[in-house]
Amino acid sequence: MNYTDIKINLKREIKYKTYLVQADIGVQKPAGLFALVAELAMINSKLLTEDLIVNEFAFSIPMAKRVIQRCLFKDLIEEAEDDTYHLTTLGE
């Protein structure tokens, strides 16, 4: 299966004028993705869950988990409770 050409259809217009994001299962080029994930968290009271990523971007669960891991690694989010994360100051 090729994960290099995944199109993300957003349900609403967001602040950033990015509507298609190129990503793969490893999220190797995540710069555009980080902005979308941060914006998604901002409109959701600065909270983020895997389910929210799956529902908004139509990602698979493993891909959503990978996005969360990458955001944690970059200190954009931190764990608030089980499977719930909130934006850090850097993420905002």
Structure, explained:
The protein has three helices and three strands. The protein has a three-stranded antiparallel beta sheet with strand order 1-3-2. It has a single domain, classed as Winged helix-like DNA-binding domain superfamily/Winged helix DNA-binding domain (Arc Repressor Mutant, subunit A, Orthogonal Bundle). A hairpin with a 2-residue loop joins strand 2 and strand 3. The termini are far apart. About 15% of the residues have low confidence. With 92 residues, it is α+β, with helices and mostly antiparallel strands.
Poorly predicted residue ranges? 15-28
CATH superfamily: Winged helix-like DNA-binding domain superfamily/Winged helix DNA-binding domain
**What's the overall geometry?**
globular
> Helical region count?
3
Give the biggest sheet: 3 strands, antiparallel
Q: Number of DSSP strands?
A: 3
CATH overall fold name: Arc Repressor Mutant, subunit A
Question: Taking all residues together, what is the mean pLDDT?
Answer: 71
Helicity level: 25-40%
CATH class: Mainly Alpha
Number of domains: 1
What structural class do you assign from the helix and strand content? alpha+beta
Q: Can you name the CATH architecture? A: Orthogonal Bundle
In short:
The chain has 92 residues and is of the alpha+beta class. The protein has helices at residues 31-42, 50-57, 61-73, and strands spanning 47-48, 77-81, 84-87.
